[in-house]
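Quick start: read one record
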Amino acid sequence: MLDYDKEAERYDASRGGEPRAAAAAEAVLGLVPRQARRLLDVACGTGIVTRRVAAARDGLRITGVDLAPAMARRAAARLPGAVVLADSRRLPFRDGQFDAVTSVWLLHLAGGGENVRAIVAECARVLRPGGVYVTTVDKGASHNVGSDIDAVLASRPPSTAHDAADHVESHARAHGLRPAGRARFTGHGQGRSPRRTVADLRRGWFVTLPPGEPLAADFAARLASLPDQDRPRPDPVFSLRAFVKP
């Protein structure tokens, strides 16, 4: 698992920057009702998406929350007075406080099914009746674009996708939420190159290939043998699901 306090400084530049953020914000807003006035962005990270959501719609008051202090500091610089340091499994807000709740690129990092259930439960709790929860799903699958890199990585030890769409929907239904829409957006600037993938592997990006282990070294060698080491393969396409609280 990556240390997101250490990742904060390079996070935006290494993940598509403003073009990716713009695509994410547009897709999220397409699922947030026009009448929404209070929105909570759970795991807002550096606030690069949160700021765009806030700027795009007049009258929408946004609060961001993140667990990593370095990420939250960067978000607070973009959204002064609107960012809270907190755990998404125990949100410091009252029941029914928000018209919409979002969690973009969070559930795949939750560390297990119990944590995903806890996060979805909290997001449902702080939603008012009629409110909408919007979240990314199937994050890992989004990066599989059918490239030669994916062919190499396909043989790595499998990991459980706790943010699989059917699992997330099941958790949402268990807490009174109902499916209300879906969307997709392109992760501009996130197409993998072999050299970049090796670097990600060596810093712990792939949870089933811990850095320093022989298996990780074997995959690094196989990736390093691919052609066009610095040519990015196609960008991932991310999936969003929306759920309404009756």
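DSSP finds ten helices and seven strands in the chain.
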